[in-house]
Design a protein that fits this description.
single chain, alpha/beta, 10 helices, elongated
Length: 310
């Protein structure tokens, strides 16, 4: 938008379809200015060089282009890329067309919906937006069967609820936000649940578990990380969260803590199936010690959950 409003030329390259093993997934974007790449990457090597050339041409001609690259094993080895598939990349010039700009402005603020862009333009750019609910499965971008349109599904980033705003909870919140999650931090101590301690992109709530669930009902696309100041607080929160629809539930602590908390919650009537899905200790086993290292291990596991990796 800045390029368009500033009167500068630019083009947006989007990985519209992939087959086989490729270095980047469908939906990956790269912004190209009048002198070359500005932001993002669509794979590197000769692929990116060709895309930049096509983007500069698209800017000059005011017409989009659809490129297909076959990344065979020899090419992948030469480039140092772990790929051997085929990638289709759609390149669209950014146009100061009123209807086109209006759609871009809507897309910039929309949380979900379907964007359709014609791969060939006649009298001007063809881009539409439908504010429809979009499921969490499938590719972020794809070409229609006839290749006439690129379709992109806009989905809000998953929410991560961090219970506990101590040293570790704060580090997890910062790392999760940096990784692209929407973060909500909850602590019943007002001096810890202080928005000034976090960036503007992090929501901060001072309150208990009931306040949190009343304000933010959990869904299957949400993740919960429990990192409070003690076993008792953890157990109270886990009792409510373990049976919730949340897609990911993790508890900071040791295997011994897991045994103690699980025993108590089982006695309180929490189903064993609900407790078995809780990740304790939370995070990947990388030997993390400091709050920042623990945050890396937890967010790495959150990313694996988000991407559907085991």
């Amino acid at each position: 938008m800045d390029l368009i409003h500033g009167g500068a030329s630019g083009a947006l390259a989007t990985v519209a379809r992939v087959r086989g093993s490729t270095p980047v997934p469908a939906g990956t974007k790269m912004l190209v200015g009048g002198e070359g790449r500005l932001i993002g990457s669509v794979g590197g090597g000769c692929v990116e060089a060709d895309v930049i050339e096509a983007a500069l041409h698209a800017q000059a001609e005011h017409r989009p282009a659809l490129l297909t690259h076959h990344l065979n094993a020899d090419l992948a080895g030469d480039l140092g890329l772990s790929c051997g598939g085929t990638v289709d990349i759609f390149v669209e010039p950014l146009m100061a067309d009123e209807a086109y700009v209006r759609v871009l402005e809507i897309v910039a603020t929309a949380e979900s919906g379907l964007v359709r862009t014609a791969t060939e333009w006649g009298d001007g750019p063809v881009k539409t937006f439908e504010p429809v609910a979009v499921g969490a499965s499938g590719a972020a971008a794809t070409l229609t069967r006839d290749g006439r349109f690129m379709e992109e599904r806009l989905m809000p980033a998953p929410r991560v609820f961090v219970f506990g705003a101590g040293h570790v909870g704060t580090a997890i919140a910062r790392a999760a936000e940096a990784a692209g999650f929407r973060v909500i931090v909850i602590d019943d101590r007002s001096e810890y649940a202080d928005p000034a301690r976090f960036s503007e992109g992090t929501a901060v709530l001072s309150g208990d578990i009931d306040t949190a669930l009343s304000r933010y009902p959990l869904t299957a696309t949400d993740a919960v990380v429990i990192a409070t100041r003690g076993h008792r607080n953890d157990a109270v929160i886990l009792e409510r969260v373990a049976t919730s629809p949340a897609g990911y539930v993790g508890l900071l602590g040791s295997k011994r803590k897991k045994a103690v908390v699980t025993k108590g919650l089982t006695a309180a009537g929490v189903p064993a199936t609900s407790l078995r899905r809780v990740r304790v200790p939370v995070g990947l086993a990388i030997g993390a010690v400091t709050p920042e290292e623990i945050a890396v291990s937890v967010v790495a596991e959150l990313i694996a959950w988000r991407r559907g990796r085991p």
